[in-house]
Queue: 2 jobs
Job 1
Amino acid sequence: MKKSIMFLAMALCLAAWCLMASCQRQAGGEQGSGSSAGGKGEVTLTVVNRVNTEVSTENNPMLKYIREKYGFNIQLEAPPINNYNDRLQIIMASGDHPDIVYTWGWDANFLRWAESGMLNPVDDLVKPYPHIMSNVVQANLLPVAQAGPQNLAYGIPRASSLGRRGYMYNTKWLAKLGMNPPTTIDEFYELGKAVATQDPDGNGQNDTFLLSPDANVWDSASLIVWAFLPPSNGAPDFDGVYKIREKMNGYYPFLEFMRKLYAEKIMDQEFFINKTYGGREKAFQGRVALLHTQLGVCEENHGKGLGMDLEFALPLKNTAGKRVNYLGAAQWGGWLLPVSSKKTQDALRFIDWGNSPEGFEILNWGVPGLTYTSYDLKNRTVVQTDEQQKLWNTVTSTYMTVANALEGIQAALDRDPQVALSINQQLTGYLAAVEEIPLPVYRLPEQEEFNQKNPDLITQKDQMETKYVVGEIRLEELKAFINNEWLPKYAPVEAAYLKLMAARK
């Protein structure tokens, strides 16, 4: 798998950017005019991508290295992340487009650009490029970029790591309580009672919690959710029948269990005001025992230096006694190729290089000898001095990659080579103990239309579920809303989903 490539460029006003882009395209020649990576020629590619503020977009040594060694002169515009989508809409509306555009998600804007003929369909274009084929096409990622009546792909997804989900637990707390990491829902509850009542942080107060979801009870809680019901985006219920979430056998039992956790103060009493990663931050503050995560995710170096020691544990067993992990499309946005560009083939060569082992290494770690000493792709370990790492933070990041993962694995399992080797060993154990079920990749226009037309209803449903969990309404009130308000309006989506799943059997 290959790390996603991020391209650096100064944020310019639209008029100045358009003038620059026009000049660069004139200088760069026609489609296919550039040399291959490592060749003698040079091709200039204009790119729009979102980049974290720590990375310097001027005189970037990695971009200079790529230009000198591989012949790609990347001219990047990097709008601030917080208004990237707004800036991107202005750029796409201008009619003067860059050679490569990064889209954060395959949203309504993307669909509009694809269906209006602004973007190249890539299904056939990518076939001559072996690294795109191996890291993107063979991973079945192209369907996430499909649009239009023919379901053609109008972008190249940025490959990301496969999510081997489980949870991290505070080893010091569990040791003090004399308990092991839970493997079932019953053990999960028993640990929760102990965390809530036996003062594991030793401050003399009952102010610690088992978990803290991010605002919505479904968010950051799949370690519990999947014990009750599978994902409703392509997995059948435990009885083998495809259903929407609200009709799955475990829908109400899950919410009832969460209500029980809240009532007994096992769950954070203010989870509903969490922002993104709010539960994660509370775990680092020593207020929460368990943290939903993925194998190989650093999670602030496993809590070291924060007064705790976090360890990874396998997902809980479901009602059938199985540990199951559902694998969705491992992608994080992707790359669009505007039809107005004269350098589509050059852009494809660059994206292909970014999905190669060599491109994956450079885009993730920067300049050999300058920002890192060596890299072991097989074990996903990097050797860096403190000085190299400090410089590396200003040169590249996961935002700067074309692919975030190669063969489904991120560039580094951990900064510490010994920890990385340990995670590799954990992966072997994970795959032996956990059944992995791939979820189908598909587009459901009826769902997209429903989301656009019913934002208030969607918000109301989230609120009703939360109100039930925190004890503000009774189960009968929630069921009345689901049966009388939600399901009738959601019926067209349900019918389309069930028809699609029936066709896939």
Job 2
Amino acid sequence: MQGSSDGEMYMKDGVKIHVRQMKSFLVPGGQKDSRITVRPTMEQMKKYGILHFKGKQYRYLLFLCDRKEKQKLMDECLIDLELPRPKDNDLSWRVKDAETGKWVDCDKPPYATDVDQKTKGLVNIRE
């Protein structure tokens, strides 16, 4: 099953940062924080040059159940999964404007890589 679905990400200096990875950049080491995600405020986004994107991205699903269960799951799903073969023109992106806080249509985010153990050092957020 293929489709396109809304997703979001942050980006700093061409490095794509997943929403759940922001906590490791924004919460000082050793400080306890029980939240699963920590999202940057508009002030932090301006200060550190963090961009916030939302958009329709490719999603691929492989059901490991029988046909009947698959249909039941698809009927219950809140996301339209019926787009059979998504193409680039099915994708769309918006970026949060740092001044107004409103979402503005934009092109595909210009990211070079994702954050992982090797690339984490490329993102400098803390002072």
